[in-house]
Amino acid sequence: MTGPFLIKIAIDNYIMPGEFKGLLYVVVLYGLVILFEFVIRYFQGYYTEYMGQKIMYDMRMDIFSHINKMPMSFFDKNPVGRIMTRVTTDVQTLNEMLSSGIVTIFGDIFMILGIMIVMLSLNWKLSLIAFSVLILLAIATFIFRSKVRITFRIVRTKISNINSFLQETISGINTTKLFNRQKENNKDFKDLSRSYLDIYLKTIFYYAVFYPVVIIIGTLAVALIIWYGGQKVIANLLTLGTLVAFIQYIEKFFHPISDLSEKFGILQEAIAASERIFKLLDHTPS
């Protein structure tokens, strides 16, 4: 958030007045800010991944220990492939949310609020004009979330069905060959794979539509800033540095929003995975 403000200072205090001597200090400070941001992101990424892996290890051990305590009737009702999905794929999905999703979500929210506060403090009228497009973004996000929430749950179910079918088919391959059921099994697997592909392509379609919509809304906000702010600069009611800073801030503003949309998909997958894991853990051992 500091970068655009430093650019504003450089333009208004040094470039426009022709004070090039002090410009060097702003450039050095800008470089130090970027270096500090790099260090923070490094430690954030490392320690969040480390904690995620530790949590995933403990969770897998707990699930495996719980499965070992279950009676034989449990395994008769639950295919081995489905159980394996809980221990591997579903736990990995939760790890993605814990190691990067939650931290990124809070970071993005902090970034959005921080940018809004800085923009309002610089020029509240120009800020309100830029934020006028948020109603369009809210509508697009609501539609996107409602669609993706449903498809992600179906996707996880389809993956579990495929894993269960593969486990049963491979473990019973001798019976399959004995009764010459290779063609029937191929057809069943093709139907399962096609069903998974269809629902996943629908999810991809929603993302493919949503991201360009966010970009268009962000571009509209920039256009409004240039239109209104440009008039104020010409009338000497707004500095050029403030206008440039606003353009950069609004571009930064929409980056975490797009990132939140991506993390929302991870969150939906994690919610669906956690529901299945806790359903497994709810079975009482004999």
Description:
There is one protein chain. By secondary structure, the protein is mainly α. It has a single domain, classed as ABC transporter type 1, transmembrane domain (ABC transporter transmembrane region fold, Up-down Bundle). Helix content is 91%, strand content 0%. The protein has nine helices and no strands. It has helices at residues 2-15, 20-68, 72-77, 80-122, 124-131, 134-171, 173-178, 182-234, 240-281. Helix 1 runs antiparallel to helix 9. It is elongated, with a radius of gyration of 26 Å. Keywords: Membrane, Transmembrane, Transmembrane helix. GO terms for molecular function: ABC-type oligopeptide transporter activity; ATP binding.
* Biggest sheet overview: none
For this structure, the CATH topology is ABC transporter transmembrane region fold
What is the overall shape? elongated
Distance between the termini: 57 Å
Beta-strand content bin: under 5%
Q: Roughly what percent helix?
A: over 70%
Count of folded domains: 1
Radius of gyration: 26 Å
At the fourth CATH level, what is the homologous superfamily? ABC transporter type 1, transmembrane domain
The CATH architecture is: Up-down Bundle
Poorly predicted tracts of residues? none
Number of strands: 0
Tally of contiguous helical segments: 9
Question: What is the residue-mean pLDDT, rounded to a whole number?
Answer: 84
**CATH C-level name:** Mainly Alpha
Give me the strand/helix succession: HHHHHHHHH
Membrane topology: Multi-pass membrane protein
Keywords: Membrane, Transmembrane, Transmembrane helix
Transmembrane segments: 22-43, 102-120, 126-144, 204-227, 233-250
Main location: membrane
